[in-house]
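pasting for ref
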Amino acid sequence: MAIPSKLLLSDLLKHNVRCDQGIDHGPLVSAWMHPPAHRILGVISRPSNLRLQREIWRLDQIKGIDQQEVYLKGTCSISDDQTLERFPTLMNANIFSKSGQRLGLIADFVFELKKGIIQYYLISRSNPLIPGTSRWRLSIDKIIDKQPGSISCDIDTLEDLPIEKASLKEEFFSKSRKWRTQLNDLTYKASDRLEGWIEDQSLDNENESLDDSSNSHNNPVSYDDWIDNLDIDSFEKFNTMNKRKRKKNSIDERDLDPWI
């Protein structure tokens, strides 16, 4: 049976404990932690639901893990719930931002199975027992202070941390934020292009009006030019027709005059 190098605590707590003598010691219920060093020292099993007795196993006693059981070698230490509740732990500890705002709580962590060193914690915004809740990864270097039941971190919001597992609600919010950002970018780009086009058109209109005014000042239309542009042929035809008409009228008047 292979032993993984890294393991999620919640995955380990899904197993039953079986010793090297073949005895079933019940399910794993919690971890034995050393918070100052961010280490896990062992695991705790519950041999019976009717008794308060708990069994404590060292981490180096784990010799194999399969899909349903954890195999341990050696004997365990006997304790009870009241004693174990006084053991220091960071599980379910409240997470606070650097401004003192509560962000969530420790829901899980990933640790090295050989030495028990915790690599990072997983934060839940709400109750971690609710199925499908999101998880944010909190690295050890982000922790600036820790007290029993509380951890202060060098972050402002959970969005400053990488998300490990997103719920449907969180995925929808994340996609909505991306779509909103893309829409704003497209709106700003279109607005900039429209403003640039309007400025170009106004400059072109100003240049055209300046060209027209300069041409009108440089090439003024005089009265002689206007006369020259008249249709001279039409003017001559008009004079010829007037001469013929006057001549005809004079002939008609001579015919009507009885003294001539």
